[in-house]
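Q: what sequence does this backbone want?
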């Protein structure tokens, strides 16, 4: 029995030395975990050595048990210390990799610029929102009813002609103006109404220096009790002054639109010439009636502007096609 006792003591001491040497060079937490399982796991080497305790006399077992506990605690301490060292090294390595050297020169990224079309839209919306209007939007594909009929277009009106309107195979069409938004909004809301509707429109225009098949409009609509043409004129004068940054001479010329009566074109005298910038008028009673309002109670005014026209005049652009050329030499000017 003495031989068995000495053998177990020798095996435990050797196990401690072997494990200590194996733990020291471990360089990853995964490797360290494998060593723990190998030496201290349920099927580890320490458990295998302790299986020999069954051959010892009852008097010798406490001695081997105490020695086994010392070995186990010593190895656990070394494993824990090594684990802490590895975690600390891992954190330091991560910090070193993520450290930002503020003395290094930065990488230059050219600052983006707002496209002239977007610039005009943003500027106009800021002005109208400041006047108490709400921004409203709508779909670009519309029905004949919303694009024409509800806006008081007669069945034989030229704007319905295939040369002007882009019709789709299913009978719908691509809206020719943002006035469609007004009809949708009035159907869903009761007066008083004050909205501004920006959006993309489509027409079968021949593309040249001043025309495009795809363009942008901004439309204004106000409906309430007692609104008059004077309210419309005052609103547009405030808008034009804010848009151009100065008080300019403005004139209203009689015109015709199916959805307004009376109608007018608005000209602004800028840089020595008169510029046509807006179309406007009082909302036709038939339009008021088509959305379920009482034209005997409510009146309204509307106005619309072409965004590209404003951009070309204010930025002195000679060809509308430049706005869609994606030429960086052109865009960098703004």
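A:
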């Amino acid at each position: 029995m003495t031989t068995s006792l000495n053998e177990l003591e020798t095996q435990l001491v050797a196990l401690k030395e072997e494990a200590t040497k194996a733990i020291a060079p471990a360089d990853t937490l995964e490797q360290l975990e494998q060593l723990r399982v190998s030496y201290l796991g349920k099927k580890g080497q320490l458990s295998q050595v302790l299986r020999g305790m069954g051959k010892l006399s009852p008097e010798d077992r406490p001695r081997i048990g105490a020695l086994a506990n010392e070995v186990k605690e010593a190895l656990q301490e070394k494993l824990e210390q090594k684990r802490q060292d590895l975690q600390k090294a891992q954190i330091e390595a991560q910090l070193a990799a993520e450290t930002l050297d503020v003395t290094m020169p930065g990488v230059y990224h050219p600052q983006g610029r707002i496209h002239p079309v977007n610039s005009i839209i943003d500027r106009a919306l800021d002005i109208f929102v400041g006047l108490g209007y709400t921004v409203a939007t709508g779909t670009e594909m519309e029905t004949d009813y919303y694009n024409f009929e509800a806006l008081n277009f007669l069945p034989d009106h030229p704007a319905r002609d295939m040369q002007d309107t882009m019709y789709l195979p299913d009978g719908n069409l691509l809206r020719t103006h943002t006035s469609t938004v007004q009809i949708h909004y009035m159907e869903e809301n009761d007066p008083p109404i004050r909205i501004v509707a920006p959006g993309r429109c489509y027409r079968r225009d021949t593309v040249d220096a001043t025309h495009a098949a795809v363009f942008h409009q901004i439309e204004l609509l106000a409906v309430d009790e007692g609104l008059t043409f004077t309210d419309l004129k005052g609103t547009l004068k405030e808008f034009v002054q804010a848009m151009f940054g100065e008080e300019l001479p403005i004139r209203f010329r009689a015109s015709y639109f199916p959805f307004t009566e009376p109608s007018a074109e608005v000209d602004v005298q800028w840089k020595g010439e008169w510029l046509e910038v807006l179309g406007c008028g009082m909302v036709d009673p038939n339009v008021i009636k088509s959305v379920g309002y009482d034209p005997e109670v409510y009146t309204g005014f509307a106005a619309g502007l072409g965004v590209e026209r404003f951009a070309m005049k204010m930025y002195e652009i000679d060809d509308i096609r430049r706005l869609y050329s994606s030429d960086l030499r052109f865009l960098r000017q703004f």
